[in-house]
Amino acid sequence: MLQKLRERSSGWVATIIIGLLMIPFVFVVDQSYLGGMGANNVAQVKAPPAWWPGAPAWWPVSMLWEHEEVSGDEFRQRFEQERMRQREAMGDQFDPRQFESAENKRRVLEQLVDEKALVLAARRAGVTVSDAALREYIRQIPAFQADGKFDATRYQLALASQVPPLTPRRFEDMVQGVRLATPSGEWRLGVAPASAAGPNLRALAVGSEGTLGVITEVTVRIRPLPERERYEGFVLDGWERATDAVRVLAQNGLLADITRVSDEDETEVSFALKGGLATTAVRRYLAARGITRPCLLILGWHDRAPQRKRALRILRAAGAVSLGRAPGEAWRHGRFAGPRQRDALLDLGVCVETLETATHWSGLGELYEKVRSALHAALDRPLVMCHVSHAYETGASLYFTVLAARDPHDPFGQWERAKQAASEAISENTRGTITHHHAVGLDHAPYLRAEIGDVGMAVLAAAKHATDPTGVLNPGKLGL
Q: What are the CA-CA distances from residue 97 to residues 65, 82, 185, 354, 378 (Å)?
C-alpha cells in the first residue's frame, strides 16, 4: 500500500541523505555531514500545501510545503531494533558484518520514509486513528514481539529506555508513596511529603531490589517541563582541574541540571570520532589557549539563567575555555545512542563494558587512578575512559567505559576478571561505594558487606525475614 502511495502521489518529493548509509556506527554518530535538512535529520518527505496542490517547489514558495522528517535518532533506534530482531531470529547464523551493509541500512531508511509519507498523507486527508487501532498497530511492531507474539515486558523496557536515566537516590527523592505486595501482607508507605516517624522506609522499600516485596504502586512528584534549555561545552586543562571546577560549582550550589566532565581519554575519543576540519581547528585553538590535556565539560541548563551567570564566572577563574553550544547539543542528541552501539561493538568482537562508583572529593583522584590501574592490569591494552556523571557537595560519581579486544575463547571470564579487579580496587579500604546507581544484584553482592558492615547486613536480613520469612523473593540479591 505504501509503495502505491509513493507511486501515485504526484508532486511529492522524498529527499534522502544516503551518506548516512555508508558511515559505520561508533560511539556518537557525527551529525555534521547531514547538511541540507537540519542538524539531526537524515531524510525528509515533502508535499505542497493541501490548499495549493500545484504549489511549485522553488523558494520561497517551497517554505509553504508540509514536511515530515526522519531524525538520526529515529534511524539509529530502528536500525538497532532490526539488529536485535534478526539476531534473535537467526541465532548463531547472524552475521554482524553482513547486517551493517548499505543495503540493510537503505531498507530500514526506506521503511521510515514510507511511514513518514503515510503520516503526511493522513494528516493532509484529515484521517485519524482510533485508540484500538493504535494499540493493535503497537502489538504488530516486531521490536515489541518475542516468538512472533506481543511481549509486554519488551514493550515496557523499550519505553523505559527512552526517558533520561535517574540514579536510585534521585528517583527515591521523587517517590512520595509506595505500595508493596509481600508474603507477609500488603505494605503501604507515604502518608505525607515529609515525616520524622522513624527511618525512611520508603527508601528501604524502593532500594530493596525486589527482596522485600513486589512494588505494585508508586506515587511520584512531577514538575513542569523547562521553558528554556541550554546545553553547552567547555574544556579545562587536566582531570584534576576539571573535577575541582565541578567541586566548586557543587559546593556553591551552582551545578547545572546536567553536569558531566570527561577525562582526557574520553575527550580524545570524542574529538577523534568527530574529526574533520572543525575539530582540527578546535584542537589548535585549545593549544593556543594553553590547553595541553583537554577535558570536556558539558553543562545543560533548564531555565536558571542567574545561576548560569555565576557558574560561568567560576569556570573562567578555573581557566575553562568555552566551545559554545555545539558540543552540548551534540551530546544531547547522541546521549542515548551508546547502549545500542554497545551491541554493535559486541557483535564485531569488541569487549565493551561499563562500571561505576562514587566517593568523597578528597578521595576522588585516588579512586580514579586505582580503578584505571586495575583495569589496565587485568586486560590487554584496553581503552579506559571515565567521566563524572553526578556531582554533589561532598563528592561525585565516576563512570568508566572499557573497550578491549574480546577474548574469543573466554569472553565472559575476560570481563569477570577485569570487573573483579576493579571492584576490589573500589572496596579496598572503602575507597568508594561498590555501586552509585547500577545497584547490587548478584555481581556486587560479595562487596556489600565491606561497605555496610556486619550490622548493616543483619538489618537487611531482619527486614527480609519480616516481609519474606521463607525467602522466596529475588533470592541472592543484596547478598540475602
A: 40, 14, 53, 24, 28
Mean pLDDT of 427-433: 95
Cβ pair 250, 297 in contact under 8 A: no
Residue 188 CB neighbour total at 10 angstroms: 11
How far does CA 444 lie from the centroid of its chain?
Answer: 22
Residue 228 near residue 306 (C-beta atoms within 8 A) = no
pLDDT, tens digit, for every residue of 215-243?
A: 999 888 888 888 999 999 999 999 999 99
What CATH code is assigned to 338-438?
3.30.300.330
Handedness of CA 302, 306, 309, 311 (dihedral sign): negative
Fold category of 229-334 in CATH = Vanillyl-alcohol Oxidase; Chain A, domain 3 (3.40.462)
Domain-by-domain residue ranges, the chain? 2-128, 229-334, 338-438
Give one DSSP letter per residue of 42-89, joined into a string.
EEEEEE--TT-TT--SSTTGGGGSEEEEEEHHHHHHHHHHHHHHHHHH
Q: What are phi and psi of 15, to 5 degrees?
A: -105, 120
Residues 6+ apart with CB under 8 A from 188: 177, 178, 179, 180
Under DSSP, the state recorded for 34 is -
What does pTM read for this prediction? 0.69
